[in-house]
Amino acid sequence: MRRSSPAHSATRRSLSAALVAGFALTSAVVAAPAAHADEWRDQQYWLEDYGVTEAWETTRGEGMTIAVIDTGVDSSHPTLSGAVVGGTDVSGAGDGGAPVDQVATEHGTLVSSLAAGRGTSAEAEEVAELVEGDFEDLDEDEWEDWWEDFESDLEEIYGEQWQDEVDSEALEEFEETRTAPRELTRDEAGDDGVVGVAPEASLLSISLLLEDPNPYGGGTEEQIAEAVTWAVDNGADIINMSLGSGFQEWPQSWDEAFLYAEENDVLVVAASGNRASGQLSVGAPATIPGVLAVAGVDEQRGISEDSSSQGIAIGIAAASEPLVGAVPGGGYAEWNGTSGAAPIVSGAAALVWAANPELSATEVKHRLLSTADSEGADGVDPEYGNGVLNVAAAVNGEAPAFEASAYPTLAEWVRVHRRGQVEETDQEEIPEDAGVVAGPEGEPRAMPEASRASTAQDWAGPVALSAAALLVVAVITMAAVHYNLARRQDP
After folding, report:
1. Burial (0-12, 13-18, 19+ Cβ within 10 Å), 284
2. Is 339 designated active site?
3. Which of 21, 33, 233, 455 has a Cα at 20 to 30 A from 473?
């Protein structure tokens, strides 16, 4: 029977406690003025600045699936209508990946909208419901009556200026053919509501509970491992983790789950963390080899003073302030943080993969990194990584030749770094038929000892324990540090 050493057990308990306790999100919530859906869209500067709209001429992410490991997703939100194709709760507190009642309930919905929001407003969703059905069997009088009621409904939804809100050509085509065109119910030009980088990708919602202790089930360590495994088993191509910690190490129990993602060619994207929460250096899971760590920049592409940690694990930077996104109940929010930068990169990965389905996960990552706009120091900058995301170049541009050796894998890291961590075993009696002769009873003779210099092994254990203890009081955050919540009321 195998057992852990006391030091190993103490370290694991401290690390687990830090994970569970630290995921309590501290946020400044300030009421923001209400805005019309197209005003929220106007604030999504990264769609043009990062070449997203140009990449949409090639693909909008169809056929790709992004798993969002977070606080749950409101799949009924108009901009996420039809986007969420599955989900689960790994905390025991929720149901099917819907938002779990906790701090930052809206976080998962915000994140999801930036990855794969459809860009549909509540008004457009109401119009879509109005035009559902088969009108070919209506006679002329019945059709005229229906159309009169339809126009009255449009006025009720949009107000007296409803003609300005509906595509006139699409409306005319609908009246002539009695077949509602898609652009009447969902604006493909992208002028309505918040839209994700990959608006035709599918989403999986995996909800966690950020509470210590978790009265419903396992702690954060166990929840994350289960969430990653579930995402892989349920068809995720990309896993978005807009959550982070204040330490570089990760529980050994995560090795198996993240190796499972790596072995099944699933790309994991994680936020680097936020300085404002005290997280100055990139923390796990963004430090795990193979994971694409995302830093945050402002609109002028300067590193966010509040919303971006730094470190050699940084792979790429993307917009982290100011951001907008969807919140449960049909509203939208202004927010900041690498929590938002990560799903922008996840959406970009979905576009790259949809346009180049023959690529592996590491090759998709290579295209994103090698085509990024250079910022910071030459080479890999500790703040910008390989530079700022350029979606158009990643999807359609020329990328340098891929060299697998340039991208470390978790499998290799585990082979090198975990091999010495062998758990102690219980001592057992020597079997009689083993052919081994026991030595004489009594005290064993002392072995000669040469004087030796202090080595890393002398202090590595105590330092590891001390560091783990400090983690308990470290601030660990899910990357969205500040966001101004504004719930948009239906007219």
Report:
1. buried
2. yes
3. 455
Angle at 478 between CA 474 and CA 480, to 5 degrees: 115
Indicate which residue of 8, 14, 27, 70 is catalytic.
Answer: 70
- What tokens does 426 get? 């219980």
- Examine the residue annotation and report whether 107 is marked as an active-site residue of this protein: yes
User: CATH 3.40.50.200 occupies which residues in the chain?
Assistant: 6-120+192-412+476-486
Options 16, 320, 339, 370, the catalytic residue: 339
Task: Show pLDDT as tens, one digit a residue, over the chain (491 residues).
Answer: 333 334 334 334 334 333 433 443 323 333 344 455 557 778 899 999 999 999 999 999 999 999 999 999 999 998 998 899 999 999 999 999 999 998 889 999 999 999 999 987 667 778 878 888 888 889 999 999 999 999 999 899 888 888 877 878 888 888 888 887 656 654 444 446 789 999 999 999 999 998 878 999 999 999 999 999 999 999 999 999 998 877 788 999 999 999 999 999 999 999 987 655 555 678 889 999 999 999 999 999 998 776 566 667 899 999 999 999 999 998 888 998 899 999 999 999 999 999 999 999 999 999 999 999 988 777 788 789 999 999 999 999 999 999 999 999 999 999 999 875 544 444 455 555 655 555 445 444 344 444 333 333 333 333 333 333 323 222 234 434 334 444 443 44
Fold of 6-120+192-412+476-486: Rossmann fold (3.40.50)
Predicted model pTM: 0.75
Q: Shortest CA distance to 258 belongs to which of 114, 108, 369, 412?
A: 412
Could you say which of 8, 74, 91, 107 is catalytic?
107
- Go through 179-205 and write b for each residue having 16 or more CB atoms within 10 A of its CB, e for each that does not: ebbeebbbbeebebbbbbbbbbbbbbb
